[in-house]
Queue: 3 jobs
Job 1
Amino acid sequence: MKSFLKYLLATVVGIILTSVIVFFIFFGIISAMMSGKEKEADIKPNSILCLKLDQPFVDRKPKIPFDFSTLRKEERIGLNELLDNIDKAAEDENISGIHLDLSYIPAGIAHIEEVRTALLDFKKSGKFITVYSEVFSQPAYYLATIADEIYFNPVGFFQFYGIRTQSPFFKNALKKLDIKPQVVRYGKYKSAIEPFTEEGYSSANREQLSRIITTIWDDILNKISAERNITPEKLNEIADNLLVRNPQAAYSFGLVDSLVYKDEVLSILKTKTGIEEAKDLNAVTLDEYSRVPKKRPYKGLAKDKIAVIYATGNIEGGESDDNNIGSDRFGREIRKARKDSSIKAIVVRINSPGGDAIASEVIWHELDLTREAKPVIVSMGNLAGSGGYYIACMADSILVQPSTITGSIGVFGMFLNTSGFFNKFGITFDTEKTNENADFMSMLRDISPVELEYWRAVIDSIYSIFVRRVEKGRPLTYAEIDEIGQGRIWSGIDAVELGLADKIGGLHDAIEMARNMAGLGDKYRIVELPKQEDPIEKLIKDLTNSAKIRALQKELGINGEYVHIYKQMMQNQGIQARMLYDISIY
């Protein structure tokens, strides 16, 4: 009886706790929804738009910024929202200027470049831009250099040392797990498989990475030089010798304009906006300003539309979600946009390392059909390589940032022999088959010579198709594409020079180009596709994924740390048009 009561009490407590958790989850949903439907902000005259860019950047801000598995709000800065607000502030008579409070900016250089360009355009309005920082990270300082005045804390920390790329390599870890990766690839620069087969960069990979980071760094130095009147040679000297060892050095080199504390900056801003010292500064945050409607040069609702299709994440078959590019989902959205007579042009915003080759072909086909019906412009963000370039190459025009990483025209196949891994757990397998290759591509043995021959033929064929797709969309011959292909990645600067892209520009430039190509006037509106996930579906998925992770950790114990590596390799299995798994530029 005592045992029964104990279990009954435990069940009741469990039900109560579950009910409480569900209540808070739905309270979070409602709060997140309501936060996006607040009333319009009232902006006073002589206000300053204050931007604190310390949250991760995404191309499109999530509709429901909430992680239901952790019951936490996901703070994200949507590049689309940020650019729109900077553009809006330039024409707003109540906004006197923009103040940036910068430290570490968790964004790629291409994202920072777009914000930098938008701020330079803002300055054309005659309004001021100021910056204050207590810790200048290198990306933050690069953005700061567009300001009229840069204020730095007298005891602040300043980083300026050049950029690097760094990638993890799992070869030795796989040896310990007795997992043997087997690779077939086309293109000597196709380095996506190297993290699993090498201990460091191959000579070909090092060659292309060195070219990319040198090109990007030179572009950054030239732009800093133009704004701060310091030669690139001097900037390199400062970086090579780590000469900015204190704020006074930053000031003496002309990297900053004043060494002041935050209260002094606030006083300066009050003077700039005509606010008395005793009164509060009219400061407006990004979230507040997002609730201010942009003035339109027309009345009523515009019928004509430009669709912006956001393609972010890995390319894969099926539906996928907001964080990846599913060929079924994107194919359907592209078809709808093609058939919608009110959509006059399409801008595809790509941030992707590529992925499944067949899924890339499916999306390419839909976009190629669409280009015959209406203008299609591609805007590349931080990354649009391999499969990401595959789906871009058919566009009427391709816009890149100088630091965009693109190209990687190549294909690879990676196949795993996991028999040793299972042996570690005492698991063995036996096989009986009717034909010699009935166990085709088994993960329990090495790839056979006939399978190797088969996959080489398949990969050569897919590479040839990839090059022909590029040939159809770009003003290049097959031979020229093959020469700059071979899986090699390029910066946006080199991509334009080589003919893989058309011009340097951001998302707003792509939209403007689409408007002109469609022959639209000022009366049009932007629609963003695909529609973002339904909050209830996101709730179920987040909770399900969270439960799966907890279950794996419980079952595998100490071996749970290997699951992430295994998942990476499983994603890379089969025929892939994918870039290096993890390439980051710091």
Job 2
Amino acid sequence: MRFCVLAAALLAAWLASFSPVQADERPNVVIMVADDLGWADVGFHGGDIDTPSLDRLAAEGVELRRFYTTPICSPTRAALMTGRNPIRLGLAYGVILPWHNNGVHPDERFLPGAFADAGYQTAMVGKWHLGHAQQTYHPNERGFAHFYGHLHTEVGYYPPFANQGGTDFQRNGVTIDDQGYETFLLADETNRYIRERDRSKPFFLYMPFLAPHTPLDAPQELQDKYADIDTDLPPARSQQTDGTRRMAKLMLRPSARPMYAAVTDAMDQAIGQVLETLDSEGIADNTIVLFFSDNGGAAYSVGGANNAPLRGGKGEVFEGGIRVVSLLRWPAKLEGGVKMRQIMTVMDVFPTLMDALGISPGEHFPWDGRSMWPAINTGTAMRLENDVFFASETPIYGHFNLTVFDEEWKLVQEIEQDQVTTTVTNHLFRIQDDPNEYNNLAQAHPDVVQKLADRIRYWRALHPIHGTRSQLVPPPGWRAPKDWSTYPQPLEALQEAAAPGMAPTPSIERILDMQHGERGRLTYDCESRWYLGGLCTRSD
């Protein structure tokens, strides 16, 4: 009898040695990011553009009703990857343009790096826009084992996929010549990656779309579908956005709304294809899908988006520029059709995912975000612990849009810097009672305005002095490469450490940093103590 039992056990062990490796049961993670999607441009917000895939995510997941991003592109992506406010990274005021040589400091811990260290497969499919001049800034050096897409923005929706005339479409540093509509190419690559993955490991996949960013273009059948869409959009109630619309009408330019709708529809179709792949692979229930827009919709004339009833749009810090469409689905853990109305920001994504999955983030600079998983998972009330700050100088150099808000008050500052004058316009709102920002209370509460304005000043002083600005044209005579995949300086051509700058010693650098005061920081990741007459100190 004992011999039979032993023989059976040996046989079972032998057969098990030939069975497939058991899949890791930890959840997969897919983050999809739209580029300039309007608040009112999805079906579940009553929009007139077909978005059945996003509507499905809303029905099957949690709608993050008060999810905030920065008002422009690169800063939001930097905040997502690091959990830190872009002001510290030197990326608050403007996006990384082709003639810039900066990116996010290589010492910053990126989200995919944490997943990779936890044993996840990591991939990115889409638009990077976080640095291209050195290999240290490349997606493959920031935790993504696989990268398919574009280093820049505005490469177009059809070949040759170029920026400033240089080809910008690659797979892991090698230029490719894939043909077709860009949005659908991203879906094809994402689906291929999921189907061909190592099934013994979970995966983290980042899918940032170009859509629906300008310059807009879409397949003809979708253009025909929206040829008669209503183009009489509600006013944005912001001078910059509404001014462009009036100018377009005076110049008899056709509305961008029909093409914008077609591009958005195509993006939703691509999302639907990925969701279907998760279904067919039998992994949808245990896959977290997070979707959000990188900023509010581009509601200006050539953008075509609609953020109403929110005020303003892309580039502005009114709610229409920073409060965005966001959804999170995890069927194995979360009930569908739920609306979370607590404030969450893009800086919170990194710590939230680490908390939800029990992953160690590894060594990192102090986060400005926090885990919102208790609020998402159980509805736990989580009031803001710190103020939220955002900024933009895009598109007009010297015109700053700034905001700080807490649970009660929100201050919006529009600062116009001319050669010898500076004009500040303050807008103060009780945001809980006035979410659409109709009632400016600045004159009635000057003490609150002053208190919040002082906080903005201190926060702005954290910005590295060589950070991005709204430099919409290149240095005179600058030339673009013919092929952007060859542009990043390879690691072997670079020195090991970050360049020290012009200060002859670290101690002199700290003194110079103090002397800069409110203007910004020389020393990376320093909390300024200039207001006390002392040297800056490291935030960690």
Job 3
Amino acid sequence: MRLRLALFAQCCATMAFAVCANAEDVALIVGNADYDNAPQITDAAPLLETKLAFENAGFLVFTVNDWTPDTWQRGLGAAIAKMTDADRIVVVLAGYSVHSVRDAWLLSTDAEDPAGYTIGQHGLSLGAMMDLATQARMAAVVLVTTPDVTFELGLGLAPGVGQPKVPDGVTLISGSGEALARLLSEKLLREGQSIRTALSQRLSGITVSGAQPSVALFPGTLATSQSDSTEEGYWRAAADLNTSAGYLAYISQYPQGAHLAEARAAIAALRDAPELQAQDTENALGLTSSARKAIQRNLTALGYNTNGVDGIFGAGTRSAISRWQRAKGFDATGYVTRDQVASLDAAASQRLREQEAEAARLQAAQDRKDRAFWQDVAAEGGEAELRAYLKAFPKGLYADVAKERLKRIEDDRLTASQAQERKAWADAKAANTVAAYRDYLKQYPKGLFAKEAQTRINALERPAEDQAAIDAAKAEESRVAGNSVVRLMVEQQLASLGLKPGTVDGTFTDATRTALRAYQTSRGMAATGYVTQTTLLRLLSGQ
């Protein structure tokens, strides 16, 4: 809107509308009919035939027939280069279309069994094409056909375009190829007819969403040779703006002008259409994406859900604005004024301050309860009181102190428990009987010495001949491994095999005996737990 106002003012200042040059208008027509894996469709042909109508309206036209991702990439660059400096952009997508909850796509002619996670390989994003169209200075129109899809669609996809989010300033139109072609030829590309007027009548088989600006796709040419060309240019600019201010400017400049009656009628119509006035008023603000996001955040903070903060004023945001306006006694147009934007910001800031104050009040009350509980119950209490405090105030003021005190209590308990267990084990070893070891295991089934206790029970319960073998092995060990150097080598080998002989220091402990028995058992030898000559030779040779 700001750009159109600037153009209007510039042309008025020079009094030469005939020389206000427009950037080139661009039309891109993609027509898919011959699909590899689906029946042919007829939607593309009538839309491709609109190329001449576009050219007559002054558009630079790009067409792509039966595209695949490869051919599309080659055709896209030239169109994009022209779109960056276009007043009007029209994109026509004809073929099978599918959609997910987030976007819609025109399927390429070689698409096969598309699914939500592979659609990027088979389709042209409708959202991306609408984003490209937003580069237009004056009008952006996207038309897409909706034939029945006969593809086998995978997870996450459904036929048609669904209900896509339409960017600000874009007009999205869907329907059959014939209906869209008729709309283009008979209405949208009719000289001097605005998009709003073309879409104002009920259109059979056509669905429209998004913007409906008072801008003509085919504004026509302005004669420069006639004496009234300046007034005609002024009038065309006013009609293109379609605002009360524009028409009043024309009346002020030409109080007896040829279009005086039309200007007055247009002003009256606008006065009778508050929504259009409200839309023009908001457009004149030139709200940036960040400003729109701020408005959405403010509405949300005040309890009016906008269905997201994305800088796009869709149905959710418009509804939220209307509800807020109604609550504040404004006309519920769904479009904001400058004063309303300021009022929203002030109200949201006040709500934030109130919320912060309420949060501080609640926190202060919580802190008072926290301190009282600590002083009355937990400060001088034991384990039960400390645990009760942490249950009530898991992140309380004294949570770290309570946790530290509990840790000390638990460490003391563990130390005392281990001391008792060691004493019980020492008593069991002193008695060295099956009954003594079983008593130990009964008290400490998973104790520090449970494994050794069971080993000793097994040894004590062995038959006499087994004990004789153990005694013989014990005597043999004193001969073959009687010095600390040999014992150190034995422990090193056991450790290298991962058998955990205890500290490798040349002293055989209970852990060493357990490791020896494990080694002997794994090698098919008598598991005596003592180093016989055979055990020594095999162990040191790495067998």
